[in-house]
Amino acid sequence: MSLGMVYSAALHGMEVKFIRVEADLSNGLPMFHMVGYLSSEVKEAGERVRTAIRNSGLEVPVKKTVINLSPGSVRKRGASFDLPIALSILASQGLIGQEALEQVLAVGELGLDGSIRDVPGVLPIVWEARKQGYRLCIVPADNEAEAALVEGIPVLAAGSLAQLPDLLSGKELPQPRSVNSQKAGSVEPAFEGDFQEVKGQGAVKRAAEIAVAGGHNFLMIGPPGSGKSMIARRIPTILPPLAMEEALEITKIYSVQGMLEKETPLIRRRPFREVHHTATKAALIGGGVIPAPGEISLAHKGVLFLDELTEFPRSVLEVLRQPLEEKKIRLTRKQGVYEFPTDFMLAAAMNPCPCGYYPDLDRCTCTPAGISQYLGKVSQPFLGRIDICMDTPAVDYRSLQSSGQEETSEKIRERVCMARERQLGRYRGEKGKTNASLPARLIPKYCSLGTKEERIMESAFEQMGLTARTCHKVLKVARTIADLDGKEKIQTSHLAEAIGYRLPDAKYWGNLR
Question: How many CB atoms lie within 10 A of CB 334?
């Protein structure tokens, strides 16, 4: 009797669970049996693995073969266990020394010809393997660049199963690629579009700048053709560049979804995800039979744009309330709890009524009841999560044909980056890194007001019917405006502008309360 063993990994949402893959060969009737709480695609691995071993010119054991994937309490899914199953069989035959597989982790799908094919989720697996002290990771050749993003652990990328006995014996062991080559080439891709192309709408562009500078949620309300979508789609051009830590965090999410480019896997630009109003709750927050990240997780550290907000089913919008506050989403299933990060900025656009022209009574054809029903699709609790609400009026002909030079995205981005740097310095050691993510307990410390400002805030609170949440939103926005102005203290002008960004809330929804 002989036993071979190698480690592999299973993804449980974003969490990595390590799996011990064991192969036992013994005398008896020839058979191939696999155990360990396996899904149907893992059970099918038996035929793939035996055919791949034979077509690689290696010996297929004509013995009783039992494969165990431990622990048995963790559900195993996907084709990434093909390679570790094959390695454990080769080790049990003595074709690979068991000492060569000590503290080695392997993932990969096998083709019938013995080729090793790429699999999703390699980056988080290798990342966690390094933390747990594994000495080597064996990955498909097509996943080599992705695995090389992790420093501190050797990565062996193989294109075929036939290579591995010699590679693992040390005869042809290549040097693992270094993440430094990825860092050196991590130039941010060029942007499409520029705020310079947006004619007029200076107040809306100012609101967008404040929203990005503090990471605030942003809603634009206006008639069709007023430039709402155009402005929203240029928000990526003023987002601050990604730090390496943030880039790897985003890349891990896209790795789980299998959405990375093979040659340049590192994501170097903050994501901008535009979601159609036909999207389901599962598409937005994640889920499915095998829970996977949704659009709000794919927008992590970036922007989620919901155009035609009132066309989304109210039940779909309501599921965003908790992730917008907690910056993560927990999906509870029978198999366990899956958690995904959701630290994104929400940008949304909508018309003020079904025809789009309210409150212009000369053009609006809607009834008061129709307008109330239309606006009622956006609930007050959801609206309370919006930091900046901005009227986007129609652009007049003179503004559209003006030959004046509009401000470029590059200039706006410079101010945004300076404001973000002030926030990073201020919140060093704190949980929040932007004004929008500032916890309520820290607002008195970092958003303190003078006597005059306190009176203004008290008056606005009572007259506008603000809640505790919307009051905190106003203070956070005022803090961002002060940062853009280079001021340490929130002044009257900063607070007045922040309060102004809640006036459309009262204008459109005030009669619905």
Answer: 4
Residue 257, exposed/middle/buried by CB under 10 A (0-12, 13-18, 19+)?
middle
Does the pTM surpass 0.85? The reply is yes
Query: What is the C-alpha separation between 18 and 343, in angstroms, rounded?
Result: 27
Confidence band, pLDDT 50/70/90 cuts, at residue 90: very high
pLDDT at 426 over 50: yes
With a CB cutoff of 8 Å and minimum separation 6, the contacts of 488 are 482
Counting residues of the chain whose pLDDT is more than 90, the rounded percentage is 79
pLDDT at 480 over 50: yes
Q: Are 174 and 156 in contact (CB under 8 A)?
A: yes
Q: Which amino acid is at 4?
A: G
Angle value at C-alpha 349, between 225 and 213, nearest 5 degrees = 115
The DSSP bridge pattern shows strands 218-221 and 388-391 to be: parallel
- Cβ atoms of 477 and 438 within 8 Å: the answer is no
DSSP single-letter state for residue 173: P
The Cα–Cα gap between 511 and 409 comes to: 38
The answer to whether 352 and 223 are in contact (CB under 8 A) is yes
* Residue 359, pLDDT score: 85
**In this prediction, what percent of the chain has a pLDDT beyond 70?**
95
CA distances 362 to 44, 184, 357, 367, 374, Å, are: 67, 59, 9, 13, 19
